[in-house]
Design brief:
single chain, alpha+beta, Agglutinin, subunit A, 6 domains, 49 strands, 24% helix, flat, binds adenosine monophosphate
């Protein structure tokens, strides 16, 4: 009878909850929570209730911020949604939280093991849902707590890591999508093997490694003491975990692993009532786990980013040179072990993977060195804790993997080397005097060598040219002596040959016209087709640009660069002769309603990837290292099979290996493709080409010109429009309707994503071309793009979203003007 009364009271209460929305502060066996009920924490910071994410119809029990109800921090039944509003959350007499469906079936339950006298469920102000014994006064004693079963969010006071006694692993796992909280494929977790580290994983594959704790933060992430958070890393026999506390209780902050596998920390901004990102993982190429392979370091400020450690050489030089660094490096001199080894100190590094490592908290650095020397398998050592000058000892066994160089921060690493190798390195790098003498002697030898090689090559080529002139009448020397010397590598054509080949520059033979003059199709007497660019006398491309193009392009060879066959400088004519490209330029296709149908998605991808490879060759792999400065659709030519080739090197510049950027007061390029820093300040670097490449990707995907496009509703130019669609989460709407079937939507979105990464406002945020090629050819995670630089017109020198997102009707294709 008593049981019946209880049941009656319970159901009466339950039905009243189901009808009305009501807020509770506890759930007890006699007070259950229906779909419209909520549980609120005492300080009104967090709320628990039923919700449906986005447009989903499924119902879940979750916890969210009162200040931001759409920010769900925990979900009970993430893998078992309810299909209607009939769910009920209750606590059983045994202290187990259960979620029941309309037929009273258990959809989800907690796993409390001890039976309390007076079970109650409460939501604490930390966001922790706990079940405790109401008769127990200890506020920290819980029978079960949601903090032990995190979803995608790490809140202050939560622990990310292991209870080593019970084997409980607390890690974050992504939602499948923004509308499906089910466990996704990404996780971020502490791995306790060796000296524990923080890894970002996709399934069982490591994507990135935040690294090991060094007393201040994780060695691979810039976690530094600050006034907002206090970080904590606990490592003892019972547990190993990372956590953080807020120093100012009025601040809200959370760490979240999003559905694409990116870890972000957000802080709530009261003023804007929104979450602002404070930290984002995977922001650059060097965060990809083991990108450079063993015994190599990654430096985001260098190009290419990977380099072997000193005393090491690429294991597979061929792969290494083609930007595949995964084989890593090997020792130039083998270790000797017994007394024959020492250590090379590297400063400012992210410590290598500690999976195969050993540590001791009380040893000092000297003892640590001795310990490493004693063991022939020990490959490196470092301080365990960098605070107060360093303490503890960390030893590595086996290869050193996933190391980075930082411009700021990082720590010291001592790498084991054969003493003979150390002597060699010392000679090369540690004696500044010797280095200086070395440089002087080296440079003198180099200069003398270059003069000798130059003279021999000049005499040799002159001989060849003379022979060619004697042999055939169609190719003749230029009559400009000054130019001639600079153009040894190009073949010099006779004017009459070109006049005949082009039917005296007949209009029928005209292929197009660029900023520097018309281009004609020609046919040489032996039947070979050529394209002749006739530089108009009043064009900006004078002899200097012609020389520039000849000198640069004649020395380059790549399947994605158009081949320069030669030049002709005779009787006031300056001409460049190229291989003929039957399909002319890309702009003739993508911006043409009829012809763009010929470019299906597969062909468009092939073009994007080809241009990326050509540009990578120019930036990183060619002998000269070249910035193109005028990359655009009309400078991409297409061969018979629609393979792309970059053309027009009239304004390209060669740059030195270590030179990061350069400035000019003569700004040449094309509006719509010019990066903001180049157009505004004349500053060009490889990143200005990356910007143009990003514009090109978006044009190829959308079939719209950045400069010509103007969205009828919002007046945005193409970049503005693409960005708007991106932030509204509908990037696919950007795609050209004429593309036809899109077999792989995620591939399309990936290309738009890469395009947007390339057109980011700040050059340092844009990826370099080797990273672009990698991103286009893999399925690796991509970082979140920031707002693009929307440059349209120099008169509108303002990069705010409103101004530069808008389009200009004044379309100029190629422009030369003097900057300030
Ligand atoms: P440019 O002055 O290099 O921008 O060239 C102007 C136009 O001429 C290009 O957009 C192409 O349509 C065409 N063109 C230039 N070079 C070639 C070539 N090698 N083969 C075929 N068409 C070309």
């Amino acid at each position: 009878m008593e049981a019946f009364t209880h049941l009656f009271v319970f159901y009466t209460f339950l039905f009243s909850l189901l009808r009305t929305s009501i807020s509770l502060d506890t759930v007890t066996p006699s007070q259950s929570l229906g779909d419209r009920g909520t549980l609120v924490s005492a300080g009104r910071q967090f709320q628990l209730g039923f919700f449906s994410p986005g447009n989903s119809k499924s119902r879940y029990v979750g916890i969210w911020y009162m200040i931001s109800p759409e920010t769900v921090v925990w979900v009970a039944n993430r893998d078992a949604p309810l299909s209607d509003h009939s769910g009920v959350l209750k606590v059983t007499d045994d202290g187990v939280l259960v979620l029941l469906n309309s037929t009273n079936g258990t959809v989800w339950s907690s796993n409390t093991s001890t039976t309390p006298q007076n079970p109650v469920a409460k939501l604490l102000d930390t966001g922790n849902l706990v079940v405790k014994d109401g008769n127990d006064d200890n506020p920290d004693k819980f029978l079960w707590q949601s903090f032990d079963y995190p979803c995608n969010t790490l809140l202050p006071e939560m622990k990310l890591g292991w209870n080593l006694v019970t084997g409980l692993d607390r890690f974050l796992s992504s939602w499948k999508s923004t509308e499906d909280p089910a466990q996704g494929e990404f996780s971020t977790r502490i791995v306790p093997h060796g000296y524990p580290q923080w890894f970002d994983m996709e399934g069982t594959k490591i994507k990135a490694r935040a690294g090991s704790w060094n007393g201040l933060g994780f060695t691979g992430r810039a976690v530094r003491p600050n006034t907002v958070f206090e970080y904590e890393f606990v490592l003892n026999e019972k547990e190993v975990y990372y956590g953080y506390k807020l120093l100012n209780k009025s601040v809200f902050s959370r760490v979240v692993l999003n559905p694409s596998g990116i870890v972000q920390r957000f802080v709530w901004m009261d003023r804007t009532q929104s979450w602002e990102p404070f930290f984002t993982s995977h922001a650059n190429q060097c965060e990809i786990y083991a990108l450079c392979g063993a015994y190599a370091t990654c430096n985001i400020n260098k190009s290419p980013v990977c380099a072997c450690m000193e005393g090491f050489l690429p294991k597979s030089p061929e792969h290494w040179d083609s930007v595949d660094w995964s084989d890593g490096c090997v020792r130039r001199t083998p270790l000797e072990c017994n007394g024959g080894d020492g250590f090379l100190k590297r400063t400012g590094v992210k410590l290598p993977d500690t999976f195969y490592s050993w540590y001791n908290k009380s040893m000092n650095l000297q003892e640590c060195e001795g310990m490493c020397l004693k063991n022939c398998s020990c490959t490196a050592y470092a301080s365990l804790d960098v605070r107060g000058g360093g303490s503890g000892c960390l030893l590595w066994f086996g290869s050193l993997i996933d190391t980075r160089e930082f411009a700021e921060g990082g720590q010291d690493l001592y790498i084991r080397m054969a003493i003979s190798e150390l002597g060699h390195l010392d000679k090369n790098s540690h004696s500044s005097e010797r280095k200086l003498v070395g440089i002087i002697v080296g440079s003198t030898l180099l200069v003398v060598g270059m003069i000798i090689v130059g003279m021999v090559s000049y005499i040799w080529k002159k001989k060849l040219r003379n022979q060619a002139m004697i042999k055939g009448s169609e190719r003749k020397d230029c009559d400009n002596e000054g130019v001639k010397e600079d153009m040894e590598l190009a073949i010099l054509f006779d004017l009459t040959v070109i006049v005949n080949a082009t039917d005296n520059f007949s209009n029928n033979k005209k292929l197009g016209e660029g900023g520097f003059g018309p281009v004609y199709k020609g046919t040489l007497p032996e039947g070979k087709d050529i394209a002749v660019k006739r530089l108009s006398k009043n064009s900006g491309q004078g002899l200097n640009e012609l020389k520039n193009e000849v000198i640069l392009i004649a020395k380059l060879q790549h399947r994605n660069l158009v081949k320069l066959l030669g030049c002709c400088i005779q009787e006031n004519e300056n001409m460049l002769i190229y291989e003929y490209m039957p399909n002319k330029s890309l702009d003739c296709f993508i911006f043409d309603q009829t012809k763009s149908k010929l470019l299906d998605w597969h062909k468009r991808i092939n073009i994007i990837r080809g241009v990326a490879k050509g540009l990578l060759y120019l930036h990183e792999d060619s002998r000269l290292r070249i910035i193109h400065r005028d990359l655009k659709a009309s400078n991409i030519l297409l061969d018979n099979n629609m393979n792309p080739k970059i053309s027009d090197f009239g304004v390209a510049r060669s740059f030195g290996g270590d030179q990061i950027d350069s400035a000019t007061n003569r700004i040449i390029g094309t509006y719509g493709y010019m990066s903001p820093e180049y157009a505004m300040h004349g500053q060009y670097s490889v990143k200005s080409d990356v910007f143009s490449f990003g514009v090109l990707i978006l044009e190829i995907v959308s079939g719209k010109k950045n400069r010509g496009f103007c969205h009828p509703d919002n007046q945005l130019n193409l970049l503005g429009h693409a960005w708007k669609l991106w932030i509204e989460d509908k990037p696919i709407k950007l795609v050209d309707e004429l593309v036809g079937d899109l077999c792989n939507i995620s591939d399309v979105v990936r290309h738009i994503h890469v395009g947007l990464l390339c057109v980011q406002q700040r050059p340092e945020d844009r990826p370099n071309m080797s990273f672009v090629v990698q991103m286009l050819n893999s399925e690796n995670l991509l970082s979140k793009p920031k707002q693009p630089g929307f440059f349209t017109d120099p008169q509108e020198a303002d990069f705010s979203f409103s101004k530069f997102g808008t389009c200009s009707t004044n379309e100029i294709t190629t422009t030369v003007f003097e900057g300030r």
